[in-house]
Amino acid sequence: MRQTFFHELSELEKREKEEKKERVELYLRSRSAALRDSLPLISIILIVIFSIGAAMYAVYLFVDLTRINDVANVHVTSNLKLAARNLQGNVFNDPEKGIVNWMLHRDQQNGFEIAHPENWIMGSDSSHLFEIKKYNSQRSANESLAAIIHIDELENPQGLALVEFAAEESKFTASSLKKETLGEKEIIRTGKRRDDSGLAYSKIYWQREGKNYCLKVVYYNQNNKEAEKDLNKIVSELKIL
């Protein structure tokens, strides 16, 4: 009688263990099936997100390379362009200075970073490291220039110090040039000058890793107050990396 009792107890415990094992296996199978069923949906969502991002980027590149919005008077939604630029990481904001959604350009090789309003057009002159233009009208890129900025690397075969180099290149005396600090870098500014034709311009010189650089601003239309205001902000936001 006693043996029968313990035998039945043992069988009962065994059945309970088997039932628990079956329940665990059933749960795991159901979880696996649910995950397997959801994989196509996850894949579709990822594909859609990637496709949207790729499409916005492609539109941005097309607009940026062809200048279709500036030259052909074809309207491209600014929000779409801004979204594409955000994907690239080239949006610069500083609300305290009135800077909103500016284009940001970073040249790691030559060590500078510069930002500008979106209505300044990138130049196509390959002789410059960087070039942007502001026109008096946004209706067409054939309108007259208001201002232009370009950055160049300049030869320094004599290995002159920055002040002496700037004086020689600009044709001004070293004492008439302005020494300033930009970040941790020394820069030399000519201030606003006029060339022989009466055209106003200014230059900024700096050195980096043994190389000499110059940012030149040319003021084609000093009556364009918007361009003048932009120029001051653009130059003030220049960074030497």
Distance between the termini: 92 Å
Q: Flag low-confidence runs.
A: 67-75
CATH top level class name of the largest domain? Alpha Beta
Order of helices and strands: HHHEEEEEEHEEEEEHE
Mean pLDDT: 79
Shape verdict: elongated
- Radius of gyration, Cα only, in angstroms? 32 Å
User: Main β-sheet: number of strands, strand sense, barrel status?
Assistant: 8 strands, antiparallel
Description of the molecule:
With 241 residues, this protein is an alpha+beta fold. It has two domains: 1-89; 92-240, Protein Transport Mog1p, Chain A. Helices cover 42% and strands 28% of the residues. It has five helices and twelve strands. Helix 1 crosses helix 3 (78-88). The protein starts with a helix and ends with a strand.
Top keywords for this entry?
12 strands; single chain; 8-stranded antiparallel beta sheet; elongated; 4-stranded antiparallel beta sheet; 241 residues; alpha+beta; Protein Transport Mog1p, Chain A
